[in-house]
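User: Here's a structure from my thesis project, written as structure tokens. My advisor, Dr. K., wants to see whether a designed sequence matches the one we expressed. Can you design one independently, without my sequence as a hint?
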């Protein structure tokens, strides 16, 4: 037979295919090419198993019909043997008893017909036996093929499990990297803000500090005459008396008071200082609102 018969382990293989399809649907789409290839292989195996199941049903029916024909042929052969034995037993009596010639020719013809039928039945029985032998060989081959299909399904299942493990590991790495990215963005924003504040502070210092050799008088209050010959304050003192710009922090997703304190003070234990400085907008350490601005004392 050109097409191999598959059954025995076929129901188990079909159940495994169903489980693989369920795993494919539950699997995350981290490796679409590999998952698509496995699904295509599983579909091909499912189609082959379905075709093998249909062919197995047909061959089972043929085997049952052949066995029935063999049993019928055996019964006919047994009947023909009995008829032949009865004819042989009657043949001597016919020779002893005087009988007309036409009766002898009829008995010989019946005997020849019985022998022909017996030979035909024996040939049919031999053919049926050969077909039974071929069917048994096909069944053994089908069992071997089913075992091979089961191994392929196990390998596909192992591949899907490996892909799922890789997808889970990738998701865990992404979950660990996301907080670091958030902190990096916060650090970059803070660095930009500090750079802007530094530029503004330098601008104020440049405006407040007189140039070399400048004789700009010191500022006086309105209505108060400037003191003639009064010494002017040095530029370094003017810079020291300038009040530093207050620090602020914009709350982003994932911020906590302890994290903000560690960022600005290098220690998370000073979170209460930030909370006390922002009592008008923050009730407690769990009341941070994304987008709100905090004062950093």
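Assistant: Designed independently from the structure alone:
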């Amino acid at each position: 037979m050109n097409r191999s018969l598959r059954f025995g382990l076929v129901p188990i293989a079909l159940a495994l295919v169903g489980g693989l399809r369920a795993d494919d649907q539950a699997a995350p789409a981290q490796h679409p090419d590999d998952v698509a290839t496995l699904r295509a292989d599983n579909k091909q195996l499912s189609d082959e198993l379905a075709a093998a199941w249909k062919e197995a049903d047909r061959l089972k029916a043929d085997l049952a019909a052949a066995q029935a024909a063999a049993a019928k042929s055996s019964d006919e052969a047994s009947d023909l043997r009995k008829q032949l034995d009865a004819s042989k037993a009657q043949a001597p009596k016919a020779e002893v008893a005087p009988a007309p010639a036409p009766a002898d020719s009829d008995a010989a013809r019946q005997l020849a017909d019985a022998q022909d039928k017996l030979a035909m039945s024996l040939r049919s029985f031999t053919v049926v036996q050969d077909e039974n032998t071929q069917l048994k060989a096909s069944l053994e081959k089908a069992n071997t093929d089913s075992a091979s299909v089961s191994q392929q399904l196990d390998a596909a299942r192992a591949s899907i499990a490996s892909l799922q493990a890789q997808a889970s590991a990738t998701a865990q790495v992404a979950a660990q990297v996301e907080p670091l990215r958030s902190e990096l963005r916060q650090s970059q924003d803070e660095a930009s803000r500090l750079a802007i504040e530094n530029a503004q502070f330098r601008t104020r210092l440049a405006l407040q500090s007189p140039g070399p050799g400048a004789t700009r008088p010191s500022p006086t209050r309105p209505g108060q005459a400037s003191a003639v010959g009064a010494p002017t304050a040095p530029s370094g003192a003017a810079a020291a008396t300038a009040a530093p710009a207050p620090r602020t922090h914009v709350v982003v997703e994932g911020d906590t008071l302890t994290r903000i304190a560690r960022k600005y003070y290098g220690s998370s234990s000073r979170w209460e200082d930030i909370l006390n400085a922002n009592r008008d907008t923050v009730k407690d350490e769990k009341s941070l609102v994304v987008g709100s601005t905090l004062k950093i004392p």
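When you compare it with your expressed construct, this may help: The first strand starts at residue 247 and ends at 250.
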